[in-house]
Amino acid sequence: MPAWFFHLLLLGCELTASTKSYTFQVDEEDDSDHILALSVVCLTDGAKDECNVVEVVGRNHENQEIAVPVANLKLSCQPLLTLDNFKLQPPVTFRLAAGSGPVHLGGWHRIMHRKDASFEDDDLSEEDEEELPPIMPAKK
């Protein structure tokens, strides 16, 4: 059975009137497993009191592009939304579908790497393990 180890990296991007989208993708030759988790979407300094709609754009099982709104923020009533680590698989695009922002997106990126299978120390059989002495009752 292969062993895995992982890296956890922070993710952050900002969507504005001039930068309406951000695409997160990984190298196609990378054989690691990647998970992107969106934790928070919030309006930042300079935002107007208007509806700011953030969409996640990805591909469905038929490889067709789909866009799903994940946040509708307005400075006067809901400037921040917590998404409880909404998990996505790259490639994924975040798009400001309405409003001028700025909207900050924060989360994390987990990369799981397959560990080299040449380590045989992990595959000890029960016979190779040391036997522990039995637990003796405490003396009174």
From TrEMBL:
Its main location: nucleus. Residues 119-140 are annotated as: Disordered. The keyword Phosphoprotein applies. One of its GO terms (cellular component) is cytoplasm. Residues 119-132 have a biased composition (Acidic residues). It is found in: Nucleus, Nucleolus. Residues 11-110 form the Nucleoplasmin core domain. Residues 1-21 form the signal peptide. Gene3D superfamilies: Nucleoplasmin core domain. Keywords: Acetylation, Chaperone, Methylation, Nucleus, Phosphoprotein, Signal. Interacts with NPM (via N-terminus). Forms a pentamer with NPM at a ratio 4:1 (NPM3/NPM). Two pentamers form a decamer. Belongs to the nucleoplasmin family. This is Nucleoplasmin-3. The lineage of its organism: Eukaryota, Metazoa, Chordata, Craniata, Vertebrata. The gene is Npm3.
